[in-house]
Design brief:
Elements lengths: L17 E8 L12 E6 L5 H9 L3 H6 L8 E8 L2 E7 L10 H17 L3 E9 L6 H12 L4 E6 L6 H15 L10 E2 L8 H13 L1
Parallel strand pairs: 2-4, 2-5, 5-6, 6-7
Antiparallel strand pairs: 1-3, 3-4
Bound molecules: guanosine-5'-diphosphate (GDP).
Length: about 210
Amino acid sequence: MPKDRDTASAQPVPWAVTCEFLVSVVAIEGLPGDKKVEVAFAGRSNVGKSTLLNALVGRKKLAKTSNTPGRTRMLNFFHLKNPELDCYLVDMPGYGYARAARGQIFRWTGLVKDYMRGRANLRRVYLLIDSRRGLMAADKEILKLLQDAAVSTQVILTKADKLRNDERTLALEKLTRDLKPYVVVHPDILMTSAIKKTGIDDLRAALIATCKG
Ligand code: GDP
């Protein structure tokens, strides 16, 4: 069960990270050729990915780069570096937007499938789920892709501040049940609120452990 930083008196983890935009990739041929460890962040449009990534790296500009017109359908690579971490963070295009054209969904799936299948240095995909909504049909499609490609996955619940404590517990229980069929998913679910800055230290610690391991 993730710790609740709302009430915890724990000292915040010191975190000074540099985060530089590297490249936007539209096709698999454009992926960086070096062997640096990568972690990727995926989620439905509006799940709170930009806000969480900004909170994670402590920089307002990061998500702005990814949301620049033309870059929203691409894999956006950032280089994260501090004494404990030296990895690429990959901001994946949001999916499941109701009004997205079929062709667009198809292209997204194509790029993401290629990326997940063939990327040896991809350590983990962090899949963001809105804590109020739980697992939706589009999330299940992505989980199937991750499962088929045998990519280590960890779920991050977003917008936890919108739920009461008892609702958070229920949401975690339901999600744990719903995730059972997906063996690639890490058993620890991270509960976060980018607005209240809760769960961010846990996410940073998870990221460091993943990239070191
Ligand atoms: P993206 O499309 O996944 O990048 O989502 P955004 O980061 O743009 O967030 C979508 C909406 O959710 C915005 O209105 C944010 O202000 C809001 N939001 C994001 N994170 C949180 C959070 O932790 N708590 C609350 N209450 N709202 C959030």
